[in-house]
Amino acid sequence: MYQPSIETMGREELIRLQSKSLKKLVENVYHTVPFYREKFEELKIDPASFRGIEELEKLPFTTKSDLRENYPFGLFAAEMEEVVRLHASSGTKGKPTVVGYTQRDLEHWSTICARAIITAGGRIGDRFHNGYGYGLFTGGLGMHYGSERLGLTTIPASSGNRMRQAMLIDDFKPRGIAGTPSFVLCLGETMIKLGKDPRKSSVEYGIFGAEPWTEEMRQELEEMWGIHAVDIYGLSEVMGPGVAVECWQAKEGLHLAEDHFLVEIIDPQTLKPVPDGQIGELVFTTLTKEAMPVIRYRTGDLASINREPCRCGRTHARMSRVKGRIDDMLIIRGVNVFPSEVEICVLSQEGLSPHYQIIVEKDGALDKMTVEVEMTPEFAQQAQKDSQKKIELRRKLAERIYSMLGLNCDIRLCAPLSLPRSEGKAVRVVDLR
Ligand code: DLL
Question: What's the CA-to-centroid distance between 253 and ligand 1, angstroms?
């Protein structure tokens, strides 16, 4: 462990610590962020008498639209001279959301990412190939500073240029790799195309996140590379990568950095907390951020929480894999569909590769879902000789999807390497409605 005294802290002590930080935070944002001052006044919250975690539910939520409405720096709690770094979301709808960090925030973030790398299986002395994109996206720089904090030999590969990355892995021999699961999958594919077997590479563990992925995709990556593949979660509004990470020993949920982030799971309709173990929306309050703290930030991500200590010895609560985002949920002919459910069906069907896309369009008055998926090269070869095989495979996948979702869909089998490859976050859904 990187910080054993914090990572194995008893729950009572942890809650005391969180409560103390929360009280300080409430006082601080009241005096520094007009947005929170107004909200507190509306809700008649007096920061001076706020008692801590027991009163958490009285505090207002913060949403992505609050960030947009206060673009770019309206929610900053620190003076601009103290803000030493900005990051921003890609902003597919209108303005991006902007986040800021003070020097101390960056210190904390590096420590949190260093802790995450060790949790994921990293060791002092490793070489670390960082395939997250560098730039306004938090993935690249976040993991970079975590790796340097540990003193690892850090390779800032960024995303893209797979041929070059394949060569770097061959030559630099990293023990750890990080990137979006879809990108590292494509990188493995490129290595194979170049006649290099990723299983024979030096890589022993991979830290994958920034997009939803499934247990089936984990298996695919672990087999392809011969590695431990662990899940890392985070979001810019709260900090970036490192908010939670799986341990390589158990891979049973992602350990939340609870000394820095207070987690809640709520029912997105009623906004009330749901019991541990039940899926709901993840909500975070930052406990140590200076430049842009957030109170009860509604992430839109769906997961559950488990507060039992883990067999790796860590006591911080664990979140489940993210099932999807509330706004990623497709409603097709009245049926709720998460792209991850389609991924489970695709990856558990022999003959198919993990490269797929879901197309949703109007067919007259009705919605129509088509799953485009690449065949494996072996299957495609066999199917050339026997066209019946493709009909059979299409039927099998459609049946799997029907039994998972209760929804009929069309299947389009595509040639190997024909679908677009992602360099950062994969685009799984094309909604043409
Ligand atoms: O994606 C931060 C990050 C970088 C996390 C590298 C992990 C590794 P944003 O670009 O702000 O930040 O996107 C945050 O991505 O709300 C989730 O919807 C999704 N996401 C992040 N990690 C995971 C994950 C980074 N492990 C949004 N599983 C979040 C599923 C994830 N979704």
Answer: 15
Q: Which residue has the tokens 């309206």?
A: 74
Supply the residue whose CA is at minimum distance from atom 13 of ligand 1.
235
pLDDT of residue 423: 86
> From 3.40.50.300, 3.40.50.720, 3.40.50.920, 3.30.300.30, which CATH number describes the 329-431 domain?
3.30.300.30
- Atom of ligand 1 at shortest range from CA of 240: 2
Pocket probe for ligand 1: among 117, 145, 301, the residue whose CB has the most ligand atoms within 8 Å is 301
- Nearest alpha-carbon partner for 39 in 83, 15, 89, 74: 74
Averages of pLDDT over each 10 residues, the chain, 433 residues:
97 97 98 98 97 97 95 97 94 80 98 98 98 97 98 97 96 98 96 96 98 96 98 98 98 98 97 97 98 98 96 98 90 91 95 96 93 96 94 97 94 95 90 92
Residue 352 alpha carbon to ligand 1 centre in Å: 26
Contact 333, 29 (CB under 8 A): no
> In this structure, what token pair is assigned to residue 6?
């914090």
Q: Determine which residue's CA is closest to atom 14 belonging to ligand 1.
A: 235
Domain ranges, ordered by start, for the chain: 1-326, 329-431
First to last CA, the chain: 49
